[in-house]
Every structure is written in C-alpha cells, then in structure tokens.
Amino acid sequence: MRFEVPFVPEATYAALVAGQASALSAVYFRLGPETPDARLPGLADPSPLELAVGLAALPDIPRLGLLNAAFHAPDLLTGDGLRDLVMLLDGYLAAGAVTGIIYADQYLLQALSDASPEVAGALCAIPSINFRLDSLERASAIIEAAGSTRFRPPPSVILDRDSNRRPGHLAAITAGLHRQWPGMQVGVMANEGCLYACPYKTAHDAHIALSRLAACRVGPDINRDLGCLRRFAEDPGRMLASPFIRPEDVGQLEGVVDFVKICGRSRTARDLRTIVSAYLAGRYDGNLLWLLDTLEILSDRYACDNASLPEDFFARTADCSRQCRTCGYCRVLADQFVSLREPALPHYTPD
After folding, report:
1. How deeply is 37 buried, as exposed, middle or buried, from its count of CB atoms within 10 A (0-12, 13-18, 19+)?
2. Segment 106-137, tens digit of pLDDT
3. How would you classify the pairing of strands 338-340 and 302-304?
4. Percent of the chain at pLDDT exceeding 70
5. Which end of the chain has fewer CB atoms at under 10 Å, N or C?
6. What's the CA gap between 305 and 289, in Å, rounded?
7. What confidence tier does 39 reach under pLDDT thresholds 50, 70, 90?
C-alpha cells in the first residue's frame, strides 16, 4: 500500500519522508499561515519560503497545496485576495515546490482558473475528502466539475471516510472510477477518528472557514461543550465505532483502494514522525486515541491500548449495520479497553 502524508519542513521529519518516497503517493501541506484551509491556524505554521525550500528538496513525488476551506470571503474570489493567492501559487511553481492543489470550494477553483489560466494549467485540482464522495455518481460529478476548469484533471481522489470499513462498497466505487478515468488513483483517509456520519461536520467545516475571517474566531470548546467530543465522552463506544483504519488493518484494503492518506498535519513534527512511521510499519504500540485526529484531543483523559484490541477488530466492524443502539459490540470493547486516565503533568524530552 502507498501513502499520502503531510509535509512540514522539519529536518528529521523531511528526511523520513524523503527516505520513504517509494512508499508515498504524494505529500500535502498548507500553502502558508494565512491561506484558507480546513484546519484552524497553527501556533507556528512554516512560511511559504520554508515550505518551498523543503518541498523542492524532496524526490519526484506529487506535492499538493491545501486550499480546502469550505468557503471563502468574497474578496478571495474577486479582489486582491485572489491576486495574492495566484502570486503565491506562481511562486511555488517557480520553485518547483507544488504540482497540484486540494480544494473544497468550486467557486474558488473557477475563480483561480479565470484569474490565471497559466497557473491553473500547470496544476492539477484534486477534490477534498470534505466533498464526502460516497458513491460513484457523486465522485464522477465532482471530478467532471474539476475538469471543466483550466486546471489539469485530478489524478487522484479520496472517498468519504464513512466508507472506510466497507470494503465491498469501496471496491465497487474504485473499479468504476478506474473504468471511467484510467490511471485515476483512489484513496481513503486512515486516521481521522470523527463520529460515523458526523452530524456536526457541515457546521464544523463552516466554523473553521469562518475562523479565517477577522470578525469570527471559533475555538475547540464548541466541540467539547456541544459537539463530537461531548458525544465521545458520554459514550466511549463511539470512539471505536468511528471509521478509522489502524496501521495493523491497512492491509485489509490492499487491492481495494490504491493508497491511504494519513492526516495530522497540525500536529508537531515529532508527532508526525511517530504517526507516519506507525503506518509505514503497519503497527502501533500506544494509545490509539493519540494516533487519531479529533480523538487525539481526548487522549490525555482516555486511553485505549491499540495492541490489545482483538486481531479481528476490522473484520468484526467491517460492513456492520451501524445500528449501535442494538449491536453494542464497540460499547463492549470500550468497556474492556478504554480507560479514564489519571490527571498528570506531561513528560517532556528533547525533540
């Protein structure tokens, strides 16, 4: 299996990525601290210059810049913001540091295409996982929309995370996309631990997009107080019902999809080294919640020893009915393997 991984220009992590280039389908990265994407701003996001230098030094693998905010302010579609974004992409192209973008706003894709056909024609446009492509028909429609612009057609697409543990469903969509677009690479995202069919997702993506606007700042407390983190704490079985894929289970999708995306780019470089290394090795000994985006926030309160989960965990949860109230399997596992941690100060060691 090949992997799509985050990129940050930290020397040890960049060396890991470069050394594993043959196992990678692509790297992805935030274009800059002020560019809109589907994560809240970090405390120390690298500058475009730092990113461009680090990316240009990588072996010849696709390098994908993130423009995957759910929506954007009007001036980014028509005014100075659009001009600045085109200039930023042009600079990355001149440095040989970007081959495509990942987008979630078709308005922005069309605006960029109209503003600079030259820049658009040098880049592929890949739909974000947040398009929630859960059927062949939906995936085909979004891919065709991307191809209607001056951007190069998407060479890959990532299917909706809720399909992760439905191998037959994934295989059918993948086969259909391969027929329609020979050479298309189809992937899934492995380590996002959000609720299955998350009822908060549409509003959450909108809140993140709003946080990019000066008049609105949205922090994590809304999820703790009203959203998914509260649901997980009230019912820890939901943690294991989340459609993540453990490192040990990636092999279950060999021949079903073409690659697996690893998320966590807002984590530290040290964390990313551990996460990516675990998936490359197919094994992780530690707190499963720490490995997963979303659930990582709860890993200081709850622990689930990944190595202790049953070997047939994927098989038992694949193609399940998703009727958690009547099934109870994940709740039984949580009672056995998810524990509340005692408060403690973190232990710091040199990076």
Report:
1. buried
2. 999 999 999 999 999 999 999 999 999 999 99
3. antiparallel
4. 94
5. C
6. 9
7. confident
pLDDT digits (tens, 9 = 90+) for 273-321: 999 999 999 999 999 999 999 999 999 999 999 999 999 999 999 988 8
Grouping H, G, I as helix, E, B as strand and the rest as coil, residue 25 is: strand
**Token code pair at residue 207:** 């809140």
Q: Are 39 and 69 in contact (CB under 8 A)?
A: no
State the Cα–Cα distance between residues 214 and 41, nearest whole angstrom.
12
CB 147 within 8 A of CB 176: no
User: Which amino acid, one-letter code, is at 238?
Assistant: R
Packing angle, helices 106-115 and 80-94, rounded to 10: 70
* Residue labelled with tokens 């202790």: 308
339 sits in which H/E element: strand 338-340
Neighbour order of strands in the sheet with 2-6: 124-127, 100-103, 63-67, 24-30, 2-6, 259-261, 185-189, 156-158
Which of 101, 28, 46 is closest to 261 using CA atoms?
Answer: 28
Amino acid at 111: A
Q: Which of 254, 200, 244 lies closest to 222 in space, CA to CA? A: 200
pTM: 0.93
Distance CA 246, CA 292 (A): 9
Map out the domains of the chain with their CATH numbers: 2-340 (3.20.20.70)
| CA pair distance 29, 58, nearest whole angstrom | 13
Virtual CA dihedral for 20, 24, 30, 31, nearest 10 degrees?
Answer: 90
Which 8-state DSSP code applies to residue 115? Answer: H
Three-class secondary structure of residue 218 per DSSP: coil
Give residue for tokens 């780019």.
265
C-alpha 43/C-alpha 47 separation (Å) is 12
